[in-house]
Amino acid sequence: MFEEAKQLKEDNQYDDPEIPYDISIPVLGYNSAHFDMVFVIRYLTNPLWHITSYLEDFSHIKRVEVKQKITGVTLQFLDAMLFVTKGTLKQFAADFGNGGKDDQKGVFPYDAINTDNYNEVLSKSEPFSEEDFNNELRKESMTDEAQQIYLEDSKQFKNRWDYLQYYNEQDTTSCANTIKYKMSCNDFDLNARYIIQNDSSFINFCPFNLTEEYWEQKVNSYKQQDLKAKRSIKNNVQESDFEQFAQLIEKGSCWFCKARFTNENRPTLDRINNAIGHTKDNVRLACVYCNVARANRDDKITRLKIQLKRYYLAKGLPMPITNEDTYHILRNGITGGLANVIHRYNIKGETHINKMKYETNKVISYDLDHIMTHITGVNKNSLYPSMFSGLKHDFIKYTGNQIYMPGYEISRNTCVTDKQKNYAMETINNPLRFSSKQSDIDKVTMFVAEVKGHIDEEYINDFINFPPLI
Fold first, then answer.
1. Are residues 219 and 310 in the same domain?
2. Residue 401 φ/ψ region, left for φ over 0, alpha for ψ in the -120 to 50 degree band, beta for the rest
3. Alpha-carbon distance values, 32 to 27, 60, 163, 172, 401 (Å)
4. Quick check: is 59 in a domain?
5. 199: left (phi > 0), else alpha (psi -120 to 50), else beta?
6. Is 280 contained in some domain?
7. Type and span of the H or E element at 6
8. 283: β partners
9. Residues 129 and 159 in one domain
10. H or E element: which one contains 52?
11. For residue 25, how many C-alpha atoms fall within 13 Å in the half-sphere facing its CB?
């Protein structure tokens, strides 16, 4: 494994040898946290390699990193079930594989082998019998179709040891092909132009025309940047280069994202080699966003990240939520939430209905003459909106009777000033939210609103007997 990882590391080295490649090589398993890693963990520390980090405890290892001491190559053992909903390996292979025989794990007679007889049983050359595959615990037997497939496969091997190796390889092939045949980015093209909603290069589209005044400002700005960074300005771009760059901008596009330049998406000069100033042979056109994103980072990696982001936005694919506060708000709509636990002993037809009332900073509990027959509470449809995601329901009155899950964060608005409150209300009360037309729905900004409720003291007793409302 380390030899394969070493080759991968060499193949993925950056063009600049001074930039180290320290990315871990993933080793994917399925349900390995509960099973495989329990047996493998003892072999992950020895004089040649050692564990550098792990997630969870040693009885349930979701992720573990192992580093080879001589080469510095790091393997990262991952459980695929960390990233998908719970299911079978067969279903996982069908969903994420290449549509071939990824789900053909094969069969093996577990019940016929134990720690006492394994060497004798596996050293035999004849195929396992049909009875060997019977499962006494589950009261299951092998199907005729599975038996026929096994007999055909067994013809390829001299003994049962060889078949065991083949079976184990088949077991891991499903996961290996899942990595090889990725679905979400199978048509990604680094050099493509991905059009996204609210693209600044298309809003009020007006091609950018370079003026001498604007060019003079940029030339002086680049000169000051280089002087501040103590870079030579001897061969920097000059005001006399106006005509040349005007033509480049008119016909050109951003080197990173391929966007055309408009009055909303103005051009800048990105330095190819960050150690050199803004010379004519060391600059290329870039959007302001892309130029800032690149900064002093590797240009090729930055370009890949920018293009992947635009690809995901154009395809409507989910993206990581980087704001921690936003993450917690969204998570509350998926898992967790408020738990209302009532530690009362109620017997239908016997227990008296209990009420509460608020008086002078005290909550008083008292019984009514009426007998308990039912327990009722108040809830909301969208307590866990993820349960409704993608499914149409008549009681969902917005966006074509569907609830959409968040894909990425556009902006975050804390309503303090009147302007912020008005913006929030305009977003919430968008008249197109009731439309069933997809063209209208695409113009609606999806939002999550967090509201802090308050009940004045004089109204507390009107609500005190209701369970918490979320």
1. yes
2. left
3. 11, 9, 22, 11, 40
4. yes
5. beta
6. yes
7. helix 2-11
8. 271
9. yes
10. strand 49-55
11. 20
- Are 216 and 287 in the same domain? yes
Asked if residue 252 and residue 223 are part of one domain, the reply reads: yes
Tokens of 265: 């998406």
In a shared domain, residues 93 and 48: no
Q: Is 207 helix (H, G, I), strand (E, B) or coil?
A: strand
Out of 23-32, 104-113, 119-128, 428-437, pick the least confident: 104-113
- Contact status, residue 271 vs residue 277, Cβ threshold 8 Å: yes
Q: What is the DSSP string of 60-95?
A: S-SEEEEEETTT--EEEEEEGGGTS-S--HHHHHHH
Q: Which domain holds residue 407?
A: 385-441
- Angle at which helices 242-251 and 212-228 cross, to 10°: 100
- Domain endpoint, select from 82, 108, 139: 82
Residue 145, Ramachandran bin (φ over 0: left; ψ between -120 and 50: alpha; else beta): alpha
pLDDT value of position 21: 72
**71 and 98 share a domain?**
no
Q: What is the pTM of this model?
A: 0.46
Question: Under DSSP, is residue 222 helix (H, G, I), strand (E, B) or coil?
Answer: helix
At 316 the three-state DSSP class reads coil
Shared-domain flag, residues 99 and 119: yes
Residue entry with tokens 């990696």:
301
The predicted pLDDT at position 181 comes to 44
pLDDT tens for residues 316-361? 777 767 677 887 777 776 655 555 555 556 777 888 888 899 998 8
Q: Which residue has the tokens 């966007």?
A: 259
Is 93 found in the same domain as 160? Answer: yes
Give the model confidence (pLDDT) of 114-152 as tens digits.
Answer: 888 888 888 998 998 888 888 777 778 888 888 888 888
Helix (H) or strand (E) segment spanning residue 309: helix 299-315
pLDDT of 434 above 80: yes
| Domain end point (choices 82, 111, 134) | 82
Where do the DSSP E strands lie in 261-411? Answer: 267-271, 283-287, 352-359, 362-371
